Amino acid sequence: MRAEERQHRILALARQSGRVEVADAAAEFGVARETVRRDLSELERRGLIRRTHGAAYPVESAGFETTLARRETQLVAEKRRIAAAAAELVGEAETVFVDEGYTPELVAMLLPTDRPLTVITASLRTASLVAASESTTVLLAGGRVRSGTQATVGSWARDMLARFVIDLAFMGANGVSREHGLTTPDPAVAEVKEQAVRSSRRRVLVGVHSKFGASSFCRFADVGDFDAIVTDAGLSAPEAHRYSLLGPQVLRV
Questions:
Q1: Which of 34, 132, 136, 215 has the CB geometry, 3.0–4.6 Å to 180, for a possible disulfide?
Q2: Residues in domain HTH deoR-type (predicted)?
């Protein structure tokens, strides 16, 4: 098998499964682990995957984006720890924006219900989950619903957010890098996210370590726009420190 064909199949496997292990790929294609590592280095150079700890994750781009259903199966324990730590940062906030995505959804489920709280979101699932609390007022941004994420996008959602001054935003991203900031594959999604960041007094980024070092198609914020980043211990301490030098407090849980 030629290297180009093997790399194509490794990328397809990563996108299908959400990640690819070096040892598994070596066994799958009957090659040495070092050969797979070279293939992964080439795919990473082309911006198609992100390597970490003996594995690789697909980078979401204009032509590829994982569904919400897929995100619910990947690094779930880490996402739950991140959500729990992030929810501790709510403080006295009375209005909270919750971004689309599985990790922000987990944060929403841990928001306080023993006092009045207004939650603004573009996520249909998040709106449904938090609306069960009698003390919570839910404002759902209107617009076109994306099937893969069950979230609204478009000028209606963006313009609605532009009318608010929000105490705190919990944001997600498809890619986070010191060079390119926070990115997402879809320009329509980027518009909503950018406005949510702009409309919020405090901003907290929540995301697993595999997001870091990756860049997607559309930039919507800088790392320095955030007060805090909550991730898991898969992001090394030295790398977390490099992000903290850009402004945010970085919590590894």
A1: 215
A2: 3-58
Element (H, E) at 231: strand 228-231
Tokens of 183: 């990115």
* pLDDT, tens digit, 9 for 90 and up, residues 166-181: 999 999 999 999 999 9
pLDDT score of 126: 98
Would the pLDDT of 99 be above 90? yes
Within 8 A by CB and 6+ apart from 159, the residues are: none
Q: Give the integer Cα–Cα distance in Å for 111 and 117.
A: 9
pLDDT, position 100: 97
Q: How far apart are CA 117 and CA 94, in angstroms?
A: 5
Strand duo 218-221 + 249-252: pairing = unpaired
Beta-carbon count within 10 A of 101 CB = 26
Instruction: Retrieve residue 232's tokens.
Output: 């898991």
CA 133 to centroid of chain Cα atoms? 26
DSSP string, 160-184: HHHT--EEEEEE--SEEETTTEEEE
Sequence letter at residue 125: R
